[in-house]
């Protein structure tokens, strides 16, 4: 479980840096700076606890699973932001300037990204399972 926690944490950081770097491209900042927050490592690492959910919803149509992931990710993002603000005095991401923000913690206009991220998570989870099975095989 610890290996998967670290894997999801690092993968989340990498994806967030690439995502924010690509956003820089849209703003014509050719340096392509990407960023994340140290707080995001444990938030992304908690993906390990979503694996049982994937196992339970695997049989559902992809569109239903995507909607479930969207709701789960929005809930996690909202409460992670709320908890960070409560304990540190600030939320590392602040969406309050967006007309689609909910209390500055989530953005409704990012629903498609979270929907897709959930379906990608399923593939990553399955890939990790395959790797772990191969590592357990005696050679």
Strand content: under 5%
**Low-confidence blocks of residues:** none
Count of distinct strands: 2
Series of H and E elements: HHHHEEH
The quaternary state of the protein chains shown equals: single chain
Strand order of the largest sheet: 1-2
- What is the residue-mean pLDDT, rounded to a whole number? 94
Helix content: 55-70%
SS summary, helix count: 5
Can you characterise this structure?
The chain has helices at residues 2-26, 40-45, 51-57, 62-88, 111-136, and strands at 101-102, 106-107. It is 65% helix and 3% strand. The longest helix has 27 residues, at 62-88. The protein has one domain (2-136). It has a two-stranded antiparallel sheet with strand order 1-2.
Furnish the topology, listing elements before pairings.
Layout: H1 2-26, H2 40-45, H3 51-57, H4 62-88, E1 101-102, E2 106-107, H5 111-136
Antiparallel strand pairs: 1-2
Brief summary of the model shown:
The protein has 139 residues and is mostly helical. It contains 5 helices and 2 strands, in the order H-H-H-H-E-E-H.
Short descriptors:
139 residues; 5 helices; 2 strands; 65% helix; mainly alpha
